[in-house]
Amino acid sequence: MSGIAVSSRIRLARNLEGKPFTFNATPKQQKELIASVAEIFKAQKEYNYLEMAALSDVDKRLLVERHLISPELATSQSDCGVWLTKDESISIMVNEEDHIRLQALKSGFCLTEALEKANEVDKQIYNPLKIAFSQKLGYLTCCPTNLGTGMRASVMLHLPALAKSGRIAQLLDSITKLGLTVRGIYGEGSQVQGDMYQVSNRITLGITQKDIVTSVSNVCKAITEKEEKAREFLKKNGALQLEDLIYRAYGTLCNAKILNTNEFMQLISDLKMGAGMGYLILKQPDIIDKLIIAAQPAAIMKRSGQDLNELARDEARALIVNKEVTKNIKISK
Amino acid sequence: MLCNECSKRNATLMINTNINGKQKTVHLCSQCASKLGLPSFGISDNLLSTFFNNTDFSQMLSTNVCPECGYRLEQLNQTGFLGCDKCYESFETQLLPVIKRIQGSTTHKQDISDIEQPNKIEKLKEELKAAIEIEEYERAAQIRDSIKALEKEVNDERNCSQQ
């Protein structure tokens, strides 16, 4: 699909029976939950635990940029943390809005595989933890918007051609009418950057996991086709302008001395479209997606090992981007 | 109706509690309610929010506290959250219309992933058997009532989904 579907994610919200939800729990109850979850995962070698209170703000932000924790967990006042697998495909947040939020992340378009992974982990926690489940309302969650399956299935879509053709607003409107939600790059309440849109289910109750995955997949497939058509249209009706756009983005990313996040995200979006359309050759297929993560603010600060002001950060970003793009991306002749 | 506490003034608040499935309604006047530490809110209180429309508003005038965690239903209005899993039972009457509006449904659809989870009724039947064996008849009666309540719930759901 020319890299249009960037990643797929399944998130399950789970809570313990008879225990107050995180925000309503005492520090002692929060600690007890952390200990009970640790009992399950500490013996499993592929998992590591990161306690939020022990991390610096940059490290927390870094986890958000890599989509491993929610922005809410990073700023939470509760005693909380995350269990992560080494390959970063599974993350289990403890004491988030719900007691447990587990997510399975896959790159590309594979919600079904992500669902299987998430269900495997779900089975591991169900019995030892006594998860709150009612025959009538399904999994009982802190917010009624997550009842039933407690599941959010989302696909991150890169839609530059639809955005440029001005048809995106109309499309997003019809997605909403189909019972789905569109969010920005870091989920609920976040901005759209680099033409990245997260499409997910809104309804979680009265529908099976499988049906949620099917409906999100079908809509994402339809949007992907529309994006492909919009790209073809651009190529047919403005090949010169399109090439100019892509190669200007390439030139700037190779040579700019200062790159702020917004400019970088817009240029890399054009570059990603160019690569998807065969104008550019990539050394590895995921190089652009990796670069997007490596060029985010916290990732740059972590790399430099110091607290940078905005200008210094934009300079450092330009340096990294110049090097990576020159080395790994070539113009197709 | 007179206040159940002082039997003098007219009751202006109705409190519904649901403890282990037992519904209880108490009527109080605003003075007795504040003596008992319950908030007495009037029409001016800002209870209308994204979650509740006008029909829920009248229901909201009854003060509700979850016996399990002490969470007040009005807090849902401020936070959008419930206090614990048992809040769903404690505030069932008031919550169902809200859930219906958010989710378009109030019934969980059984899923392949649920199949392996223990069926609550079966689990209770086992507990009932065990209680009878050790001659704990009072407990056995409680379990029997819970089973009946659950079975009724399941039947009601079936009827609803068939309609």
Characterise this structure.
- The complex is a heterodimer of chains A (333) and B (163).
- In chain A, 48% of the residues lie in helices and 18% in strands.
- With 333 residues, chain A is α+β, with helices and mostly antiparallel strands.
- In chain A, the strands form three sheets. In chain A, strands 2-3-4-5-1-8-10-9 form an eight-stranded antiparallel β-sheet.
- In chain A, helix 7 crosses helix 8 and helix 7 crosses helix 11.
- In chain A, 48% of the residues are buried.
- The termini of chain B are far apart.
- Mean pLDDT of chain B is 72; it is low at 39-58.
- Chain B folds into three domains: 1-40; 42-109, no CATH class; 112-153, no CATH class.
- Chain B has a two-stranded antiparallel ribbon with strand order 1-2.
- In chain B, helix 7 packs antiparallel against helix 8.
- The interface between A and B is large, with 39 and 35 residues.
Secondary structure class of chain A reads alpha+beta
Task: Note the run of SSEs of chain B as H and E.
Answer: EEHHHHHHHH
Helix content of chain A: 40-55%
Q: Which word captures the global form of chain B?
A: globular
Low-confidence stretches of chain B: 39-58
Tell me the greatest interface.
A-B, 39 and 35 residues
Mean pLDDT of chain B: 72
Following the backbone from N to C, one meets helices and strands of chain A in this order, namely EHEHHEEEHEEEHHEEHHEHHHE
Please give the largest β-sheet of chain A: 8 strands, antiparallel
Supply Rg of chain B.
19 Å
- Tell me the number of strands of chain B: 2
Strand fraction band of chain A?
Answer: 15-25%
What is the end-to-end distance of chain B?
38 Å
Sequence of strands across the biggest β-sheet of chain B: 1-2
Strand order of the largest sheet of chain A: 2-3-4-5-1-8-10-9
